[in-house]
Every structure is written in structure tokens, then in C-alpha cells.
């Protein structure tokens, strides 16, 4: 709803205008998209929300500016990984801290170095790959026409994004933060003439509706065709477009917990405890591998983290691995792999946004520009690098702490 509303207010057109004005082309735009997506995700604490917002707003702008669609999608997912892993208000951050008996502030502070080690080369890779991977030609003169008719006024919605980030950083729930963002976006659209009220929410009624003449209301229109009767606008379409993927995610979670209750994961992890985790190095490598395995089966990262957290605690406690270290291994790999596997929730949410919100919105955007989830997984550079950082850290002992090295503060929840 939020992304669709600022899209209706010309935010994409504003981004294209700004990028064209400062000379940002495809390769650099990909790198900047990764950084900005990471900033937003860290601020609001939701990788899924960041993916939807950036796919809806930055993705079409980047395609017009010559960025490779698959690489650009990978940059957006990588930014979501960064924020989902690092944000203090992220559900995965909170789960990883609380399940390992660690305080959230200490966990976030201890994992910053790992996130940064992965983020710096990821940015370099996105810029380098952006220079090597060609974009898709837009048919006709669509790009030049789009740029020529773009409006800087749409950049006013940077304030809408700021409202979301500021509210989230203030400690409010993400639903409240997004709601303030929607309110700000609606006010800006109306006050600056960026979008009519009916573009954001409209009720189309039949001409013979038994309610009298109510078309003087800005949210009511008369439908001349019976097929047009119903609710429309960005607020409605933004929510309705994700109904099917929401049901799919709920079904996935339900199916996975049936598997968990069946005891297969218990049996596997008991074997790991008895046969594999015989040294601290092998224990930490087992943690990384177990988290990867559970995320391959449970494609929703929060559900996967809840399922595997008790076993990570048991594995680490055997060799007195510090709670911060356990939480970091748990969350980094869960956050990363939740946006890498083609069947994962983060990738599917982004794919659905391209298919249902970007494709119908722009005449120049064709079905060939819709990124196949199976094609994007090699290009989620920050996700892959974050996993690699913890494999290396487990093998070499980099950053390893024991329970005697540091005692977590009193565990707190948001």
C-alpha cells in the first residue's frame, strides 16, 4: 500500500529525473540501490517491506537507466538481507537475540563487523557487474520520453520514506511506521497535486445505485460499465496484489511445521550433536550448516529461525560459545538465505511485486523484463558473502567468543 501510494505520486519519475540530472547510469545505479535498500531495511526492520518498496519504485527507474534487471533485483534483495540482519527492530534480530538469551543491543553491536565485511565487497561487485552486464533495451523512445516528462516534484516522497524510517527508529511497531508513511504520502499527493484522491482510493458505484448522488465525494465515482464497479486506487491495489502470495506464505509455514512436528529435523540434529559437533570448530560449522539446511526447507526466514534456534543454543552451549556469537551465526545465515533460494519468501515477494505492480503500471515495461526467481540467486552478492564470512569465521575462529569472555546484558524484547 505504501509503495503503490508513493508510486502514484510520481516517486519513480522523480528518481529518474534525479539520476538523469546527476548523470547516474545503470552500473552505479545498481550499487546505489543496494546501499539505499540496506539503509531503508535497517531503519524499518523488514526485508520483505524493503523488497516490495524498492522493486516497485527503484526497479523500473533502474531498468530505464540501463541497469540489468536481474542484477538490479539481486541488489534489492541484498539490501534487504543487510537490513534484516542488522536492524534492531527486525523480527529476525529479535528472535536470534531472545532465543539465545542475549540482549538485542549487544547482538546488533557485535554483528556490525560481519555485516560490513560482507557489504563492502558486495557494493564493489554490484558496480563491477553492472558495468559488465547489459541492460534491456526499452522499445521505441520510451526511455527518453520518460526522462523528458519526469518530474522532480515526486522526490517529495523522500519525506514519506523518512517518516517510515524515523518512526521505526523511534521504536514504534513497523505497522505503525508504515501507516505514518502512507498518511504522509497521501497528504503530499493531495497538497502538491501529485495524485488525485481517487488515484489512491476510489469506490466505483453503478449509475442506478440506491444511495443517491454521492459523486461529490472525491472517493466516489460512477461506473458506466458494470465490470468497472468495485474498489480501486493505490491503497486497495497495493494490498490486493499481494493477497495470493500472502496465502502461499501462510500455507508454506503450516506445511513446514507439520514436517517439524513429524520429528525429521529432531532426528537429524540429534545425529549432528552426537556425531559431528565434536570440537568448537566443527560445532560452529554445524550451526552454519544446520541453519542453511532448515532455511532450504523452511522458506520463511522467521519461521526457519524459530525452528532451528533451540538446536543452535544446544550446540553452542556444549562448548560454551557466547550467546552473541550464537545469535550472529543464527541470524546472519537465516537473513541471507531467506533472500537467496528461488523458492524463498523474500524472492517470491519481490517477483510478485514486479509481476503485479510494475508490469501493469508502465506501457514500456514488458514481460521479458520480469526477472525469473531462478535466475537471480547468483547475484544476491551480500547474502552469499555474509554466509561465506560466517563459514570462514567458524573455520578460523575469527570473532569467536566464549561465555567467559563477555556476559550479555539482561535480555529485553521490543
Short description:
This protein is an all-alpha fold.
Number of domains: 2
Main sheet record: 3 strands, mixed
Average pLDDT: 82
Low-confidence stretches: 410-414
Q: Could you tell me the radius of gyration in angstroms?
A: 23 Å
Q: SSE layout and pairings?
A:
Layout: H1 2-8, H2 11-22, H3 26-44, H4 47-64, H5 69-86, H6 91-99, H7 104-132, H8 142-148, H9 158-169, H10 174-191, H11 197-200, E1 202-206, E2 220-223, E3 230-232, H12 234-240, H13 243-261, H14 264-276, H15 280-297, H16 301-318, H17 323-337, H18 345-358, H19 373-376, H20 381-396
Parallel strand pairs: 1-2
Antiparallel strand pairs: 1-3
Helix pairs in contact: 1-4, 1-10, 1-12, 2-4, 3-4, 3-5, 3-7, 4-5, 4-18, 5-7, 5-17, 6-16, 6-17, 7-17, 7-20, 9-10, 14-15, 15-16, 15-17, 15-20, 16-17, 17-20
Amino acid at each position: 500500500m505504501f509503495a503503490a501510494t508513493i508510486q502514484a505520486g510520481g516517486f519513480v519519475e522523480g528518481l529518474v529525473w534525479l539520476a538523469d540530472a546527476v548523470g547516474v547510469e545503470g552500473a552505479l545505479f545498481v550499487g546505489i540501490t543496494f546501499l539505499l535498500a540496506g539503509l531503508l531495511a535497517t531503519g524499518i526492520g523488514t526485508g520483505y517491506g524493503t523488497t516490495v518498496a524498492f522493486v516497485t519504485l527503484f526497479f523500473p527507474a533502474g531498468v530505464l537507466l540501463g541497469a540489468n534487471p536481474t542484477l538490479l533485483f539481486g541488489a534489492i534483495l541484498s539490501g534487504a538481507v543487510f537490513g534484516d540482519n542488522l536492524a534492531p527492530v527486525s523480527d529476525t534480530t529479535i528472535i536470534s537475540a531472545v532465543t539465545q538469551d542475549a540482549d538485542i543491543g549487544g547482538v546488533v553491536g557485535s554483528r556490525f563487523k560481519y555485516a560490513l565485511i560482507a557489504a563492502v565487497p558486495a557494493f564493489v561487485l554490484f558496480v563491477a557487474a553492472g558495468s559488465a552486464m547489459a541492460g534491456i533495451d526499452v522499445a521505441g523512445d520510451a526511455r527518453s520520453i520518460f526522462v523528458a516528462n519526469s518530474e522532480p516534484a515526486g522526490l517529495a516522497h523522500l519525506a514519506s520514506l523518512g517518516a517510515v524510517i524515523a518512526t521505526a527508529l523511534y521504536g514504534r511497531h513497523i505497522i505503525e511506521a508504515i501507516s505514518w508513511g502512507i498518511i504522509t504520502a497521501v497528504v503530499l499527493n493531495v497538497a502538491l497535486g501529485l495524485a488525485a484522491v481517487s488515484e489512491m482510493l476510489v469506490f466505483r458505484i453503478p449509475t442506478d445505485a440506491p444511495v443517491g448522488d454521492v459523486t461529490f465525494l472525491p472517493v466516489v465515482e460512477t461506473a458506466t460499465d458494470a465490470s468497472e464497479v468495485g474498489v480501486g486506487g493505490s491503497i486497495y491495489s497495493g494490498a490486493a496484489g499481494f493477497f495470493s502470495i500472502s496465502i502461499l506464505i501462510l500455507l508454506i509455514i503450516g506445511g513446514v511445521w507439520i514436517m517439524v512436528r513429524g520429528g525429521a529435523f529432531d532426528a537429524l540434529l540429534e545425529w549432528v550433536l552426537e556425531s559431528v559437533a565434536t570440537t568448537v570448530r566443527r560445532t560452529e560449522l554445524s550451526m552454519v550448516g544446520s541453519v542453511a539446511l532448515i532455511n532450504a526447507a523452511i522458506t520463511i526466514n522467521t519461521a526457519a529461525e524459530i525452528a532451528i534456534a533451540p538446536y543452535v543454543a544446544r550446540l553452542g552451549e556444549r562448548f560454551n560459545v557466547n550467546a552473541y556469537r550464537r545469535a550472529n551465526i543464527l541470524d546472519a545465515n537465516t537473513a541471507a538465505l531467506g533472500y537467496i533460494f528461488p523458492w524463498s519468501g523474500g524472492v517470491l515477494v519481490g517477483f510478485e511485486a514486479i509481476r503485479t505492480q510494475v508490469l501493469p503500471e508502465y506501457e514500456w515495461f514488458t514481460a521479458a523484463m520480469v526477472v525469473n526467481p531462478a535466475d537471480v540467486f547468483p547475484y544476491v552478492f551480500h547474502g552469499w558473502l555474509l554466509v561465506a564470512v560466517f563459514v570462514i569465521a567458524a573455520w578460523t575462529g575469527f570473532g569467536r567468543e566464549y561465555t567467559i569472555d563477555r556476559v550479555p546484558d539482561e535480555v529485553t524484547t521490543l
